[in-house]
Amino acid sequence: MTKFKKSKTKLAILMLSLGMLGSIQSVANAEELTGTLAKIKDSGVIVVGHRESSIPFSYYDNNQNVIGYSQDYSNLIVDAVKKELNMPNLKVKYLPVSSKTRIQLLNNYTYDFECGSTTNNLERQKVVDFSNSIFIVGTRFLVKADSNINGIEDLKGKNVTTTAGTTSEIRLNQLNNRDKLKIRIITPKDHGDTFNALETGRAAAFLMDDALLAGERSRAVNPAEWKIVGEPLSYESYGCMIRKGDTQFKQLIDKVIADAQTSGKALESYNRWFTQPVPPNGANMELEISPKMVELFANPNDKALD
């Protein structure tokens, strides 16, 4: 045994005899930190990515606070990081991201994780990792309630809008090319602008995840003027996004999500954001929980659905 190791062992025995085992463990844990947790520990700051207008997942209230169903998970994760690092006063910063910027900004270390409305799919898994799923959606259309549009077959030759950088944009382009639908695709930068394209008549339909469509409909001047139609073009799972290969951070986040889902806390959050009036204007998504979500809460997992 080297002199250094002997000294370290003697120090540990002395500290143990003085009832300081907890201190030894804390030092060991600090030495073992890797990836994002080590970064946060060293900087004293955790940077949380969020969306600005993904109602009711992640968006601003009237006071510019970030709120929503996904933000509930973010808050639980931040609390768990504070506890794991024994840093109750850890500084928390919030960074708005868009569908186009969220992966790049994560991978260049501008922020540390994002819980919003980001689909976990095999293509994205090549460059980032995802937590246990937090939501399962079906991709459908939002249209005028008095229109005769009931699905993609009724949109041939028409303008359809979807948000840039989303899986819905990819899916719409695939179907448009495959079936020669001659759809003209409009792709604004965020969901609010996309709904505006529909409201102002520039598009006949808005393709997006049904839960997000319910959010956009809820903030319309007259929500009853709009309806969600069509069989889902696909089912997708949302997860919190972290840097690829960050096993330690993923394990912490997965446990937080699984605990929330199996304890009933996630169901309470779902009901608050999808079946009741929500800030800032008291809109109601009126979206009862689906069988797929019930199954997810019973069996938390990080599976992509494509």
How do the strands and helices of this protein lay out in sequence?
Layout: H1 3-17, H2 21-32, H3 35-43, E1 45-50, E2 53-54, E3 58-60, E4 66-67, H4 69-84, E5 91-96, H5 102-107, E6 113-114, E7 128-144, E8 159-161, H6 167-179, E9 184-186, H7 191-199, E10 205-209, H8 210-218, E11 226-229, E12 235-243, H9 247-263, H10 265-274, H11 291-298
Parallel strand pairs: 1-5, 1-6, 8-9, 8-10
Antiparallel strand pairs: 2-3, 3-4, 7-10, 7-11, 7-12
Compose a concise summary of this entry.
With 306 residues, the chain is α/β, with parallel strands linked by helices. It has helices at residues 3-17, 21-32, 35-43, 69-84, 102-107, 167-179, 191-199, 210-218, 247-263, 265-274, 291-298; strands at 45-50, 53-54, 58-60, 66-67, 91-96, 113-114, 128-144, 159-161, 184-186, 205-209, 226-229, 235-243.
Q: Can you give a write-up of this model?
A:
Pfam families: SBP_bac_3 (PF00497). This is ABC-type amino acid transport/signal transduction system. With 306 residues, this protein is of the alpha/beta class. It folds into two domains: 35-136 and 236-298, D-Maltodextrin-Binding Protein, domain 2 (3-Layer(aba) Sandwich); 138-235, 3-Layer(aba) Sandwich (D-Maltodextrin-Binding Protein, domain 2). Helices cover 41% and strands 20% of the residues. The protein has helices at 3-17, 21-32, 35-43, 69-84, 102-107, 167-179, 191-199, 210-218, 247-263, 265-274, 291-298; strands at residues 45-50, 53-54, 58-60, 66-67, 91-96, 113-114, 128-144, 159-161, 184-186, 205-209, 226-229, 235-243.
CATH top level assignment of the largest domain: Alpha Beta
* CATH homologous superfamily (4th level) name of the largest domain: Periplasmic binding protein-like II
Radius of gyration: 23 Å
Q: Helix/strand-derived class?
A: alpha/beta
Q: What is the approximate shape?
A: globular
Biggest β-sheet: count, sense, barrel? 6 strands, mixed
Query: How far is the N terminus from the C terminus?
Result: 54 Å
Count of β-strands = 12
